[in-house]
Amino acid sequence: MTNKLYDTSLSLLTDLYQVTMAYGYWKAGMTDDRQPSSDSTRSGAAEKEAVFNLYFRKNPFSGGFTVSGGLTNVIGYINNFGFSRKDLRYLRSLTGSDGQPLFEEGFLTYLANLKLSCDIDAIPEGTVVFPNEPLLRVRGPILQCQLLETPLLNLVNFESLITTKAARLRLVAGTDTLLEFGLRRAQGADGGMTASRAAYIGGFDATSNVLAGKLYDIPVRGTHAHSWVMSFDTEQEAFDTYAEMMPNNVTLLVDTYDTLEGVKHAIQTGHKLRQKGYALSGIRLDSGDLAYLSIEARKLLDAAGFTDTAIVASNDLDEIIINSLKQQGAKITVWGVGTKLVTAYDQPALGGVYKLAAVRQANHADPDSDPAENHTAVRWDYKMKLSEQAIKISTPGIQQVRRFRDERGFLADMIFDEERSADDLNEATTTMIDPLDFTKRRRFEADQPFEDLLVPVFRGGEQVYDCPDIHATRARVQEQLAGLHPGVKRFVNPHTYPVGLEKSLHELKTELILKLREGGRE
Amino acid sequence: MTNKLYDTSLSLLTDLYQVTMAYGYWKAGMTDDRQPSSDSTRSGAAEKEAVFNLYFRKNPFSGGFTVSGGLTNVIGYINNFGFSRKDLRYLRSLTGSDGQPLFEEGFLTYLANLKLSCDIDAIPEGTVVFPNEPLLRVRGPILQCQLLETPLLNLVNFESLITTKAARLRLVAGTDTLLEFGLRRAQGADGGMTASRAAYIGGFDATSNVLAGKLYDIPVRGTHAHSWVMSFDTEQEAFDTYAEMMPNNVTLLVDTYDTLEGVKHAIQTGHKLRQKGYALSGIRLDSGDLAYLSIEARKLLDAAGFTDTAIVASNDLDEIIINSLKQQGAKITVWGVGTKLVTAYDQPALGGVYKLAAVRQANHADPDSDPAENHTAVRWDYKMKLSEQAIKISTPGIQQVRRFRDERGFLADMIFDEERSADDLNEATTTMIDPLDFTKRRRFEADQPFEDLLVPVFRGGEQVYDCPDIHATRARVQEQLAGLHPGVKRFVNPHTYPVGLEKSLHELKTELILKLREGGRE
């Protein structure tokens, strides 16, 4: 299922520099000659094939894990990729510093006929992931990889962020009910839609967002607003009318005027509902001291025989506040979370990046030969971005992530290069090296159970992955969290889950750093 | 111009409780009988007409002002309002706690035929506004007002937030160039689109987001990424190739390997460009100590005769960092701002609310009589939400905002009730009272120049407002900021711009609070 808001071509939803770089590659003759109508006037330089990895450097919210999101929307985006005539007309109108067109007509023709032919591998949505692991790996003509950078980052960054936030809230809520109420404060219409979807996947039970319910098959829930109460002469009349109109859906908001008086009015309405064979489902608190008020409200409800009536709470909640309320013995079993969830208030962006990891001349000499053979015919030129800070140095390679586990859960993740590491992975023992301290090593025997996390999603631009539905992805998140040691899941100073580089990839990286630092790039 | 991503009906983009409340009003017979195909089985209660005000309680970013945004998208939303057959099919599928349908068929028929007939008044986009001022005022059948709450809040909250952030950045940037680079970290596709638009209105010069450029007529700008440099054997080859391919658009990113070495390579490319009659437009720094590096880069460029080559900087910039860099004498004249702007990182949500302020039985006794007369025929029942915190108590009334000014700028804003305050506004002196301290008063003489900020946008559901284009709105922001005292615009402990209630509205509010606190609602 795709995010239906994106079921249109959004190929210009990218940074201009992706288009100018694409133009540069095209004009320098480094594009895929096999595209239909490619321009014959270009110079004879060979097409460049590239590999980019999309990853982040730090778990959000000072936490110990991240939950991957966005893949469903990435697939929708790629399947709808293509430049419309209007898109090209707009690009034609752009000019450079001399007032001349920025792009030659031949390039626009090239874009008009462009069909994506990339291979994309990805970690399935709803997987726990860690810094430096490639969530997506894109391999193909460098021009295509580049055009995709911005939209892939946009989609993966935001959905992973909200899925992670929701998973954290599920960890503190235990078996309580979690409702997402954030649409009014979300960052735009689609900010709200995407957040509703990601919240459900991360472990929420329902949303107030009706359109998200409709488009994504998420349960919807809702009560009423203060304005309902205010629009009647008395709170009692407001409650009674609501219950009379919708007896099978009665959760009453009790804090419009005075919360505990409101609870008493709700109880009166509850008695009337009972006489008609219905139940008072819940009351909702939206202000004040939620610990105190919920305890007092529970006493009133229980004393009146409404032991099954749930207490719902909302009002700028997040995982820290819910945790604190539970420690204070608050009698709340349904939590409505809005702003702090849908905007990821304490860290509203995940800093995912998309880095070039290898490049080579494409080899299409014999179109009838086995493509797999072609792939290995030309050696990769491994690439990395240097930085003064070790954490900002990218890792080269056609990366895959191997997750080792035992019967209790996940042990460690090892990033390896699909070509360079192949021989070492066949040895009796595999060595994994900490990327920030090469003296920290772990060894895994050949019989250690593992799973390789990235799976093929596109091959030659065609989708080869059967995307699980939203409910399966939601279940996956909880299975994944169960595989994590509790120390990794705690909020304060979480244990760092071990992620390292396979030894031969580590050696490749070290070699490249030394070469670049010694001026090998001059 | 509308935000084209919304040019489809998004009528279910609302909270479920808006729909259940609408159902409650319909079922209780409090809906507009004049709608086509209204259901005849409903009880005989009279239709309720309501007034809601949309406002926020606190300026974002600990600042002294806010810039209003979102009205263009609100207009697009309302003009496209309407429930599709698929929407109704979805609502029909919802069930209550007893497994029975949540909504009767007659209500769905009512929604299918519903045409908005509200009056909406709003403060034009790009106006400086302050806490408690109604940015939008919606008046009409309470069912309709309620359905609109969530989408109006979503659109106004987010766009006002980003417009305000951009305006703050413009204040520190002075005459420097500001570029918005945030798409990859924005909260979803539309989060990026809306932010690009709001950033331009708030004072940015251009965006990297090509689709925003196309749809909103915003200038687009871009350079190249580290990956361009990395995909060549040497940085010099990468720069030379870029300049050769696009000589009229050359800004080179110099920090892929070693920043100052990168500047020297850019200078070499600049010499080659000159020989061909082109110029090196700029170099870009994206990491490291931007103050130090820009000063050193400037020296190198100037020594080589490239005094016109601009230094562009990016890397997690915001108004505080730019201010600091300028104080350190950084030689940067073009600022690329991304994540911190488009997510409003330090406060990612504006807490706008939508509160019922008055209600009355609608009077449609004589459809041939003058509607203006009908409007005054039945007295309003003024409404407010109580709270223990004075700042959270809403203000009743059919509110309008009068902004007094003199030749130097804005003096104060006074909120008044269009009906209650009418007589007092005709007196020789008008009194305005501080809502948090009734002993603080200001008096304005009848000849004091003023402007009433809310303008009619919809009448009877029909648009009556000619929405200015994006460039006019952008110009308005700067005119508005010029009207503010510098103390209100400073970032640290800004002066509080005076906003008060007109005396008779203050008295109405006080009277209502006392009545509610004394249990008048029981």
Descriptors:
7-stranded antiparallel beta sheet; alpha/beta; TIM Barrel; glycosyltransferase activity (chains A, B); EC 6.3.4.21 (chains A, B); 21 strands; 6-stranded parallel beta sheet; NAPRTase_C (chains A, B); nicotinate phosphoribosyltransferase; N/Namide_PRibTrfase (chains A, B); homodimer; 522 residues; Nic_PRibTrfase-Fam (chains A, B)
Account of the protein in words:
Two copies of one chain form a homodimer. Chain A is an alpha/beta fold and 522 residues long. Chain A has two domains: 4-162 and 348-517, nicotinate phosphoribosyltransferase (Alpha-Beta Barrel); 164-342, Aldolase class I (TIM Barrel), CATH 3.20.20. The first copy, chain A, has helices at residues 16-27, 71-79, 85-93, 105-113, 142-173, 188-202, 210-216, 226-230, 235-245, 259-275, 290-303, 319-327, 339-342, 371-377, 422-425, 470-482, 486-489, 503-517; strands at residues 48-55, 66-67, 119-122, 128-129, 136-141, 177-180, 206-207, 251-253, 282-285, 310-313, 334-337, 353-361, 381-382, 399-406, 409-417, 429-434, 437-445, 450-452, 455-459, 462-463, 499-502. Chain A has a seven-stranded antiparallel beta sheet with strand order 13-12-1-5-3-19-20, covered by helices on one side. A six-stranded parallel beta sheet of chain A has the order 7-6-11-10-9-8. In chain A, helix 10 (259-275) links the parallel strand 8 and strand 9. In chain A, helix 1 packs antiparallel against helix 5 and helix 3 (85-93) packs antiparallel against helix 4 (105-113). In chain A, 55% of the residues are buried. At the A-B interface, helix 1, strand 1, helix 3, helix 5 and helix 6 of A face helix 1, strand 1, helix 3, helix 5 and helix 6 of B. Chains A, B: Residues 400-509 form the Nicotinate phosphoribosyltransferase C-terminal domain.
